Amino acid sequence: MIRIAFFGTPEFSVPFLTALVDDPAFEVVAVVSQPDRPQGRNHEIVPTPVKSVALDHQIPVLQPTTLRDESVLATLLALNADYFVVVAYGKIIPQAVLDVPRLGCVNVHPSLLPKYRGPSPMNWAIAEGDAKTGVTIMLLDAGMDTGPILSQTSIGLDSDETMDTLMAKAHEQGVPLLIDTLKRFATGEIVPVAQNDEAATMTKLLDREDGRIDWTLPMEVIERRLRAYQPWPGLWTVWMRNGVETRIKIHSLQPSDFRADLPPGTVSTKNSRLHVDCSDGTIEILELQPEGKPRMSAEAFLLGYSDVNGAMLG
RNA sequence: CGCGGGGUAGAGCAGCCAGGCAGCUCGCCAGGCUCAUAACCUGGAGGUCGUCGGUUCAAAUCCGACCCCCGCAA
Q1: Among the listed residues A127, A299, A313, the one whose alpha carbon sits nearest the alpha carbon of residue A237
Q2: Whole-number Å distance, CA A290 to C1' B36?
Q3: Tell me, what's the ipTM?
Q4: Quick one: DSSP state of residue A302?
Q5: Which of A211, A40, A184, A192 is nearest to A123 (CA)?
Q6: Are A283 and A209 in contact (CB under 8 A)?
Q7: Is the pLDDT of residue A260 over 90?
Q8: What phi, psi does A60 have (nearest 5°)?
């Protein structure tokens, strides 16, 4: 049996972990996850998704605050692991840890490396309107997603692709690829291939301000971001209503054939429809959510907030 | 004890601060008008005002407890 320590934290990592657990060729001897942190509305301490699954399978869980620690290193060494498998762990892994497993540290990166090194590669692929992205299985080295590639699978992006659907595809194709790659690399069937650094691109970490709609952008870009920025940071805008900033989340929109031809960010309503102009046309908002309220259709919103007509959003 | 908004007719909201007939827009039902409509007119049904308790002559409104929904933050 191939001995594996699994490094991962969010929901995205879970299918990879469960597949390893379920495969008789592997023994997952430990799981390393980020420390539990206060979360949610009352700052409750919630276990990470990966930790929960590990506990369900009676797998020992480590949650070190740092991997640069002698006792942590000693614990990892004692696992006598063949692989460390890293899927969205959330922290840089220092060289001393990379050197621990016999066969190496294998990372799952959801892009076609060397394109989109760095965080949020799937968000980026959707936001850029790419026709395809993929999943890369690679060996970690000291750089940011710079290690040699073991295997890769390509994923076609649909015109209505969202993070939900893309993650499902990444799991569908990436999980079996990981399993297969781990087995074949262990037997020497796979030779790592260095990345072409000249073709590399980097993504930046999304932050909450990325979700704030810039209405001076074209419709197409705004629409892509709506699909790319789910579930976080989402897409939102601000309505100055009677001197009070009201934040409004946009859940669904579409380009409109109606042309209001107003300055970007200006709201116009017509026949129970909600339109906002951007740089190259008029967008119809279909579903939205004022802060403190549940999400609702534009039609419902207009019944209670008819004064939005003519407002300038930003 | 992280900060904050909300629960009022099927939907979205106002009324609450300052207690005194339960409102608005839409939908629904019936009828009318029109060549015509996501139009217009007339009439109508639909509510334990989240729950429980307290104060009061009187509570959607004030006080207390609880339940539920949501935004932020992390």
Answers
A1: A313
A2: 38
A3: 0.91
A4: H
A5: A211
A6: no
A7: no
A8: -60, 140
Spell out the alpha helix ranges (H) of chain A.
14-22, 49-56, 70-78, 95-98, 121-127, 163-186, 219-228, 298-304
Read off the DSSP letter of residue A266: B
Q: What is the pTM of this model?
A: 0.91
Which nucleotides of chain B are near protein (any atom < 7 Å from a CB)? Answer: 1-6, 11-14, 25-26, 38, 69-74
Sign of CA dihedral A287, A288, A294, A297: negative
Q: Token pair of A264, please?
A: 């970007």
CA-closest candidate to residue A228, choices A118, A100, A126, A116: A126
A229/A76 Cα distance (integer angstroms)? 36
The confidence band for A218, taking pLDDT boundaries of 50, 70 and 90, is: very high
Q: What number of CA atoms fall less than 13 Å from residue A183's CA on the CB side?
A: 11
Nucleotide nearest to A299 (CA to C1'): B12
Shortest CA to C1' contact from A249: nucleotide: B71
Handedness of CA A90, A95, A98, A104 (dihedral sign): positive
State whether residue A131 is helix, strand or coil. Answer: coil
SS3 A277: strand
Distance (Å, whole) CA A287 – CA A284: 9
Tokens of A82: 């063949």
Is residue A70 within 8 Å of residue A85, measured between CB atoms? Answer: no
Within 8 A by CB and 6+ apart from A256, the residues are A273, A275, A281, A282, A283, A284
User: What proportions of chain A, in percent to the nearest 5, are helix, strand and coil?
Assistant: 30, 30, 40
Q: Taking all atoms of strand B, which protein residues have CB closer than 7 Å?
A: A 37-43, 208, 234, 236, 247, 249, 271-273, 289-294, 296, 300-301, 303-306
Distance from CA(A293) to C1'(B68), angstroms, rounded: 13
Question: Most distant CA pair in chain A: distance in Å?
Answer: 69
d(CA A161, CA A58): 36
Per-residue pLDDT tens digits for A194-217: 999 999 999 999 999 999 999 999
Please tell me what DSSP assigns to residue A42.
T
